[in-house]
Design brief:
The chain has 253 residues and is of the alpha/beta class. It has two domains: 78 residues, no CATH class; 127 residues, 3-Layer(aba) Sandwich (Rossmann fold). It has eleven helices and eleven strands. The strands form three sheets. It has a five-stranded parallel sheet. Strand 9, helix 9 and strand 10 form a beta-alpha-beta unit. Helix 4 packs across helix 5 and helix 6 runs parallel beside helix 11. One of its GO terms (molecular function) is hydrolase activity. This is PurE domain-containing protein. Pfam families: AIRC.
Length: 253
């Protein structure tokens, strides 16, 4: 919103012509910044509590740097870029400073991790092959102000590994369960905890796994009532949703 229009709106609120609630609604509905190849939504954090995140796949390093710059100029920190290859991350870093994690494939500009909640998110991964998706979820959640506890390589083929960390599971505010193959981990975790469980099927598995479809269907058919499911390999979506849940009731949200 242009300064003149914003001042006019604020004057209307001051004079009692517009209610604060209506003014907030107008601000939430304000448009984006058009930079040609992208329309950057600067009011995403006002509506969602979380600023816009850049999906890196399919964008050039120059386009990503331009979007980061637009977000930075509006005071955003912890600007996330997901699904970056190491090669594209190297090219991006030549244009603008980013911290890149090759495991999660997430780059962050203006990195500033501060846990803003009392509760924590537990990210549970069935196997080492699930680490890229698990770390995408964990890094996303941390960037959005959450403490994260990682429990990796605790799949149902060796259930004692998971059961040895029940203290971490049972005191989490929300659990992200990441698994490929048959995806049984989510139901097992759901049966052990009282908090919400976000299941993430991965494309890890042999032929009958159908690129994660078998794990997805298993998780959708879970008999544990506290399990919900995001898309195949969608660690970012799981971390985002877990952050929203973990922040419920926190005064800063």
């Amino acid at each position: 919103m242009e300064p003149e229009k914003l001042l006019s709106l604020l004057d209307s609120v001051k004079n009692g012509e517009v209610s604060p609630e209506d003014a907030l609604l107008r601000l939430k509905m304000e448009p984006f910044e058009d930079i040609g190849y992208a329309k950057v939504d600067h009011h995403r954090s006002l509506r969602h509590g979380i600023p816009e995140v850049i999906y890196g796949a399919g964008k050039t390093p120059e386009q990503i740097a331009g979007i980061i710059t637009a977000l930075k100029n509006h005071g955003n920190t912890n600007i996330l870029v997901t699904r970056l290859t190491p090669e594209k991350a190297d090219e991006l870093h030549k244009l603008i400073a980013v911290d890149y994690d090759p495991v999660s494939r997430v780059a962050i500009h203006g990195r500033k991790f501060e846990a803003a909640t009392k509760g924590y998110i537990a990210v549970v991964a069935a196997g080492t092959s699930d680490l890229p998706v698990s770390e995408e979820a964990a890094v996303t959640a941390e960037a959005f102000g959450n403490k994260v506890e990682r429990l990796y390589d605790v799949g149902v083929a060796g259930l004692h590994r998971l059961l040895s960390r029940l203290d971490v599971l049972m005191t989490a505010k929300v659990v992200i369960a990441v698994a490929g193959m048959e995806g049984a981990l989510a139901t097992v975790v759901g049966g052990l905890v009282s908090c919400p469980v976000i299941a993430v099927p991965t494309s890890v598995g042999y032929g009958a796994n159908f690129g994660g479809l078998s794990a997805l269907l298993s998780m959708l058919n879970s008999c544990a009532g506290n399990v919900s499911v995001v898309n195949i390999d969608n660690g970012f979506g799981a971390g985002y949703l877990a952050s929203l849940i973990n922040h419920i009731g926190e005064s800063e949200r």
